[in-house]
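Milestone M4 deliverable, item 7.
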Amino acid sequence: MDKPIFFISALWLKIAGVALFSIALIFFVIPLFLGIHHSGCITGMIVSILGIIFFGLNAPVSALLQKIWENGTGHIILCVVIGILGTGVILSLLFSIFMLKASVHSPKNENTVVILGCQVKNGKPSLMLKKRLDAAFSYLAQHEQVPVIVCGGQGKDESISESECMKTYLINKGIAENRIIEENSSVSTMENLQNAKEILTREDWLSEITIVTDGFHQLRAANIAKSIGLKPYAISAKTSWYLVPSYWVREWLGICYQFVFG
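Output delivered:
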């Protein structure tokens, strides 16, 4: 009797598959223990668990899939699922290439810096926000005439607005207060940039901006900026390595959502 088409005979490949998806699962679970919950964590956990099951219980799983494959309707469903998975892999690779390219699109000239909001904890910048601020400070300290717009309103679990927290942090680092403009009403990246554009118009500044955010976020932020008539460049903060996988997956989903719903 022929082996099921999804059967894996090589033991080393099964072990490698289980190990790979187990490591991936750890990376998607880590953020949960840090109080970080988003679609990238959930999606990554689901895919990782399914991968562990497929490789770890390959014999019974492949037998089940074979039965489904041999059924007319089941055959169509599996073909559709395989097609979706294949398309997902290709899109993920393409998205990653463009995300990496966007993350290093450094400014050619001096232009207004726009720092995108991120969570504030106990009145102080979260780790991710602090890294964005430090990246912005390095640039601002070298370009002393460049103004900066700090973006972000106050969330339900935040004691002060993100913009106020950022302004205070930069002032304490030595950036002159008159260089900093607060945008303190936005709750999303779209609103961050829309409100920043209103400030640019009000101050009669050029539409070229340098967006400061995490590298994985630069592509989506740039796409939004371009859609409202801004010309974006990037200064990318360094994301903690153990958070990159979950946020990277979340960005894939965010880019898909942005493409479908605008």
